Known about the structure:
This protein is α/β, with parallel strands linked by helices. 38% of the residues lie in helices and 22% in strands. The chain has a 7-stranded mixed sheet with strand order 14-17-18-13-12-20-21, with helices on both faces. The mean pLDDT is 96. The structure holds adenosine-5'-diphosphate (ADP).
Amino acid sequence: MSAQPERAPAGAKVVPNRIGVEHVAEGEASLRVDDPATDETVAWVPYHGAAEAREAVDAAAAALPGWRARPPGERAYLLRRFAAAMLQQQRQLAVELTREQGKPLAEAMGEIAYAASFIDWSAEEGRRLAGEYQQQAGSDKRMIVMRQALGVVAAITPWNFPAAMITRKLGPALAVGCTAVVKPAEQAPLTALALAELALAVGIPPGVINVVTGDADAIGRAWLDDARVRRLSFTGSTEVGRLLVARAATHLTRLSLELGGLAPLLVFDDADLDAAVRGTIVSKFRNAGQTCICPNRIYVHAAVHDAYVAKLQAAMASLRMGHGLDEGVHIGPLIDDDAVHKVETHVTDARDHGGALVTGGHIVQPRAKLARRFCEPTLITGLTPAMAIAREETFGPVVAVQAFDDEAEALALANDTPYGLAAYAYTRDLARALRVAEGLECGIVGLNDAAVSNAQAPFGGAKASGWGREGGKWGVEEYVDVKYVSIG
Ligand code: ADP
């Protein structure tokens, strides 16, 4: 990809934006979307800015009264059709997702199903959105508490889950009657545009979902400068999150922020080591380590450290790198050259700080015609708190392990970070499991579980990992305003 606008060559495929009833593609400038595994150009999308961002809000605002007034059951029906259509087109959507993002096709198939599950779950939550009616405690008066759709909401999403990060926001927003403007990441915008067309095809009216691609800063500013946008839900870096917090001051726009993580994974001496290793593989190597809940720091009790490392190394040996559309591939490319640079810097930094490279550590080209953008599954021992890996997300298939002596030390190491999204712990001692779950400063804990995310659960962080929750009934609350009516 190129975040810089270019002129698309004559005859190139420019996938238009969806703004209300319009397919908007005009303009001199476009963004190139490349296959990160090969550097081949997959398609182009418009490089739009503040003007189109405002048009998208116009379209969402125009669609709002009609959508909000629909019976919730009708909205639920349309959302269930949308989810079903995603599943009907699962393979086609997944292939497109792999091409723009790089993850193995099996994972992309899984992401489409996961993305559809947010729409499906939210459809039901929307039908059950209820208020309250009660007598006031100190008088004969009555009170009603209404829960109403916020209005127009904005979503800015990252490239690592091009489908699910959008539906996790759109599902609850649409279910309760909000309309939305969406800006997908420049690296992987095609899935978002495909989903918007699919929503229209199943009968969700024009203007309910609007997608704008282009200048992230200008689009984000335009939405936070527009009082009609009642909430901005953002998934991305803590750095951009901070910027949005400052800009949201203008209209006191509500924010949902799902920001960076730095997940620890704790393995105690009573753990089922095979389960801990399976959990490490699932949570760390999915999406080539490019998820915000990937464990970045593994803390293992000294008594089982060597056994865990040996088992993990053996399990990692079976991970195959390649193009996501090749058969039997587990690890796709890193998303771009900045990502490669970060991973290389973290590995070098770990070695400079005395870490031992057990396996991997190189950026490679797994076969001819692929880009040199694949990171070998990498295992480092001798992690210390001074290392970059212990301080910031690596976003690559790199595991770093440090030994600990007791539970208090493990918890202190795990909590020694400004971030607090996910954490994992493996132990067979129930009391310890609960103590550790209570003591971890984060929003999500996997206890003997590495696949923690689903449509039913509240996903979100503590500390600098963000504000708000997505998923389940908690995700719905982000798109609802509470209004109290006092009745004399
Ligand atoms: P990452 O490091 O994962 O790419 P970013 O925070 O840079 O995370 O990107 C996440 C999303 O935020 C993307 O859609 C990106 O285009 C968008 N973004 C980047 N910079 C800004 C900005 N200044 N204002 C609004 N959105 C932005």
